What we know:
By secondary structure, the protein is mainly alpha-helical. Helix content is 42%, strand content 4%. The protein starts with 11 loop residues before the first helix and ends in a 12-residue tail after the last strand.
Amino acid sequence: MKCPNCDKKITNKRINEVLVKRKNNPRAHNSHKIYCDNKCFAEYRAANKKKLTTCPECGRPKGYPSMRCQDCADIAVSKKWLDSEIKELVVLNPGAGFDYFIDMVIEPRSSRFWFRQKLTYFLNDLKEIEGIDYVAWLQNPDAMRLVSQDKIPAGFERYSFGSRRTQSSKTAKRRRKREGLPTRDDGNHVMIKIPRKFRWGKYKPR
Length: 206
């Protein structure tokens, strides 16, 4: 880890000292940055005062430890992502679908329903403003990848879209085997669509 101000490598001793102090200071829990010393912290804060006290969404004043102003926070899609960042991730991931997109960027699973609802409202509002249907973009099946049903990558089974192997076909195949009748052993050639691997762009999972 390096200091955000001077780019100096921070020692493990310094990191542990800061983490111990934060346990006893609830106001410091919102900060994820660690500086090499208090002088560097003061210099960084002074040099970036306008940026640190201006809401990145609307440009109005905000509290230093807050991500945005209260008005923007009240209508925000996510607690840990800015709305502008959510929009960029949607643009980067056509065909991801709501389920896959939410699983990649969502905070606690308990808020999954509300996240989807807020995301839908947000994308519909963007459509009215920009004239672009971001919901259709996110759900676009033409942007998905086509794979064999027997070769779905691990973790993508629940996001598959299209024909699926039916229970009756499995039962019929087992019955023919028991009766000594021939069955096709050349695999399942049904092709289905799944989302492409999630693209983070300049961002990282949070």
